[in-house]
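Exercise 7. Given the encoded structure of a 636-residue chain, write a plausible sequence.
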């Protein structure tokens, strides 16, 4: 019976494989090539772990050779897991195993070797986590991945880099993740979302926090779109909406919408995780998800509690509020969450004297309840400071979320007494009317406008005057595109000849759109070829004093879809680096179509992306202008 047959017989009987059962070390050595050619690497790990000390040196050499030549990814993975989880073997073999793992990582030319390379990378990473080897080798390897990596390897690598960044940080790891988006978009984008979320929580400025949360949501949404069953990414999108909504003063009913999305996503997530076990070294990530869910639910409940002047069970409610007030202790210990969540809680206690009375009563006898007296005292101190602030300053702070309503009610006694929920509804209605003055009668155009603008709500710059001006420019571009598909030669004259010319240039579109905006968007400074923007020259500059929007214009021979548009995002997004992060991308589509062009609804969409090396999202409204038009009668 060969040594391979002996191993198979032991496995079939459920008996341990020992040196004696294999015929001793000499026989193992004589048949080592035959043994190593089989998927028994995990068996060899168990063999070494249970063998006498006089066999350890020989078996260690055999095991290292086995890792070097193994061809079965499953056996390689199981053997690495068993070795790392056995402290004695891990410490004994780690130093000799590092160059073998490094070599296996470097060889990844086909699916089989890619998977072994991924498991080798995981093993090297886990050895560094355990302190068996220094982390410098694995960090150097992780920092060098590029966009040409195979999908199978890239997916594993992105997950490992994400965990490595959570452990040690490092801009090189972030850059590597950004490159891996090309090969493993869903996984790399998800990990980049975590990087940006962590970055947001490290800030102490609301504008910085909001900007980075916006970028994180863009990445999580990218992962959701790119990958199937990405309930984890959907959950984090909902969490970000809840945190931002709580900061913005949304009601409990309004916060229930993202909370329901979060609940559904987590149910899907639990179902997925029940299929297999989560490795111990990934367990903290799961714990973190649970903490975020608890905080999100707590914030929604807190919003409801803060709208009431009194509570039935003051101690229990206060304990819950203080948990949200001190959320950074639960999540990360960074100041970002406190900066977002605490002001609303403090403002509610200032506004509702009944809540402040509950707090005073509980602080008078802290031993009678379970609240954190130190934290509650800190809250009371902050409340007193806010009360002592100048009344006008506090009024401006609370009304900043409702600029239109404030301007309408300025000076009226009732302006300060409106419930926040009512104020939010009135502000929304005023905003809709304000934006609707110049709307076009075409219901399709209005529907497109509503869809495009609703997709911009995550953009921190899309508010106030900037929002109004962007909406005005968008409406004019919508009207332009609709007219250019409707108007015939007689209506347009020579100005529209390019729409039927197969040799049309982007400059023709630039000239036509400039004239349209110049004549219809009278509040803007519309110019072409403006130099000194992003070290380049703009196609179309739409200026409104302090803020501006750049329309990048292109020509494409062939149908224009999202992939084609994305190839131009780098240039279009570059113009947003030093001003508001909003812009346009227009593409003249030159195609000899057998039928009619795309509908106006198919010619517009919104896109958000985070450039490589950046933490903030850029937002682009894409529009395509069909060229080479034919009359309906010619399509018969």
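Solution.
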């Amino acid at each position: 019976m060969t040594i391979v047959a002996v191993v198979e017989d032991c496995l079939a009987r459920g008996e341990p494989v020992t040196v004696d059962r294999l015929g001793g070390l000499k026989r193992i050595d004589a048949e080592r090539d035959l043994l190593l050619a089989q998927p028994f690497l995990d068996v060899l790990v168990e063999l070494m772990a249970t063998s006498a000390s006089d066999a350890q040196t020989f078996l260690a050499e055999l095991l290292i050779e086995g890792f070097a030549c193994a061809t079965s990814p499953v056996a390689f993975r199981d053997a690495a897991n068993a070795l790392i989880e056995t402290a004695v073997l891990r410490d004994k073999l780690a130093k000799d195993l590092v160059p073998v793992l490094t070599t296996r990582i470097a060889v990844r030319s086909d699916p089989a070797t890619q998977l072994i390379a991924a498991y080798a990378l995981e093993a090297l990473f886990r050895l560094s986590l355990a302190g068996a080897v220094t982390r410098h080798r694995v960090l150097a390897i992780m920092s060098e991945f590029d966009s040409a990596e195979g999908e199978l390897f890239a997916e594993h690598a992105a997950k490992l880099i994400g965990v490595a960044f959570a452990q040690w940080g490092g801009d090189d790891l972030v850059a590597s993740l950004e490159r891996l988006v090309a090969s493993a978009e869903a996984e790399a984008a998800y990990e980049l979302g975590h990087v940006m979320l962590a970055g947001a929580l490290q800030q102490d400025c609301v504008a910085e926090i909001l900007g980075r949360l916006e970028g994180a949501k863009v990445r999580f949404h990218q992962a959701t779109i790119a990958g199937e069953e990405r309930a984890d990414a959907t959950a984090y999108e909902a969490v970000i909406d809840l945190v931002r909504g709580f900061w913005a003063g949304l009601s409990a009913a309004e916060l229930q919408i993202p909370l329901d999305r979060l609940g559904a996503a987590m149910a899907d997530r639990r179902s997925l995780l029940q299929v297999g076990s989560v490795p111990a070294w990934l367990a903290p990530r799961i714990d973190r998800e649970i903490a975020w869910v608890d905080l999100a639910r707590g914030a929604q409940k807190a919003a409801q509690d803060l709208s009431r002047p009194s509570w039935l069970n003051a101690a229990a409610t206060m304990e819950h509020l203080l948990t949200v007030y001190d959320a950074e202790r639960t999540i990360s210990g960074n100041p970002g969450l406190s900066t977002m969540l605490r002001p609303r809680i403090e403002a509610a206690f200032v506004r509702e004297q009944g809540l402040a009375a509950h707090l005073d009563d509980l602080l008078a006898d802290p031993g009678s309840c379970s609240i954190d007296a130190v934290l509650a005292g800190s809250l009371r101190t902050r409340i007193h400071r806010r009360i002592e602030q100048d009344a006008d300053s506090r009024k401006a702070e609370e009304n900043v979320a409702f600029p239109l309503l404030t301007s309408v009610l300025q000076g009226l006694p009732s302006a300060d007494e409106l419930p926040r929920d009512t104020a939010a509804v009135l502000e929304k209605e005023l905003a809709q009317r304000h934006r609707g003055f110049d709307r076009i009668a075409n219901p399709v155009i209005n529907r497109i406008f509503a869809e495009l603008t609703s997709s911009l709500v995550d953009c921190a710059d899309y508010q106030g005057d900037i929002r109004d001006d962007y909406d005005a420019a968008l409406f004019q571009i919508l009207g332009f595109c609709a007219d250019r598909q409707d108007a015939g030669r007689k209506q347009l004259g020579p100005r529209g000849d390019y729409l039927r010319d197969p040799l049309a240039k982007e400059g023709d579109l630039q000239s036509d759109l400039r004239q349209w905006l110049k004549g219809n968007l009278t509040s803007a400074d519309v110019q072409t070829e403006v130099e000194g923007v992003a070290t380049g020259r703009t196609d179309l500059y739409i200026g409104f004093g302090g803020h501006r929007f750049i329309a990048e214009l292109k020509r494409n021979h062939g149908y224009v879809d999202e992939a084609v548009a994305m190839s131009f995002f780098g240039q279009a997004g570059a113009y947003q680096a030093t001003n508001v992060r909003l812009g346009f991308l227009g593409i003249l589509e030159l195609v000899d179509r057998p039928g009619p062009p795309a509908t106006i609804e198919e010619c517009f969409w919104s896109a958000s992306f985070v450039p490589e090396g950046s933490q903030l999202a850029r937002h682009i409204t894409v529009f395509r202008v069909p060229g080479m038009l034919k009359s309906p009668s010619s399509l018969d």
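Remark. The CA atoms of residues 527 and 541 lie 5 Å apart. Students should compare their own answers with the one above.
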